[in-house]
Design brief:
Structural class: mainly alpha
Strand content: under 5%
Largest sheet: 2 strands, antiparallel
Number of strands: 2
Helix content: 55-70%
Mean pLDDT: 88
Number of helices: 5
Order of helices and strands: HHEEHHH
Strand order of the largest sheet: 1-2
Radius of gyration: 17 Å
Length: 162
């Protein structure tokens, strides 16, 4: 049951909630569609790519990590991963699930094309970066030198170009 709760909470917060807040603060009417076909196409492609990366990361975490992603500011919302993941999407960056959320949100930003949603996105990035720092401490405690070596090789949100 806790596994499902973590997934549903993530869906409600990151795929429905934050984009809904972005829409509300944008001042765009409901329904709304940009006039530019290019804008719609880029927005949809980014949103789909972000969703695909997040889903791949979740499935990989479940299968390889043997756990769930949601450990909110030191509070276990769902069972923790039992294995350190360093390959698959986690070979790209240490937080591919969040990178997917950010790419999804960039699609929403391009679709809405307004300033206030950008402010919501900035707050989201700040709060989630603080969350990631908390998770990194836990991962260091759980996996020790294995995690520290992984952290030196793989970027937090973006691939290292070296």
């Amino acid at each position: 049951m806790r596994n499902i709760f973590g997934y549903l909470l993530g869906l409600c917060l990151f795929i429905i909630g934050i984009p809904a807040i972005m829409w509300l603060v944008s001042g765009r009417p409901w329904p709304y569609a940009p006039e530019s076909t290019l804008q719609i196409t880029v927005a949809v492609l980014l949103a789909l790519a972000g969703l695909a990366l997040s889903i791949w990361s979740i499935v990989y975490m479940r299968r390889v990590g043997k756990g769930n992603p949601f450990d909110a500011y030191g509070h276990e919302v769902a069972p923790r991963t039992k294995n350190l993941m360093t390959e698959g999407p986690y070979g790209i960056c240490r937080n591919p699930m969040l990178l997917g959320v950010y790419i999804f949100d960039l699609g929403v930003l391009i679709y809405l094309w307004a300033w206030w949603p950008l402010a919501v996105f900035a707050v989201e990035v700040i709060l989630l970066t603080l969350q990631v720092r908390s998770e990194e401490k836990r991962l260091e405690t759980d996996f020790g030198e294995e995690y520290l070596a992984y952290r030196r090789q793989v970027g937090r949100f973006l691939p290292r170009l070296s």
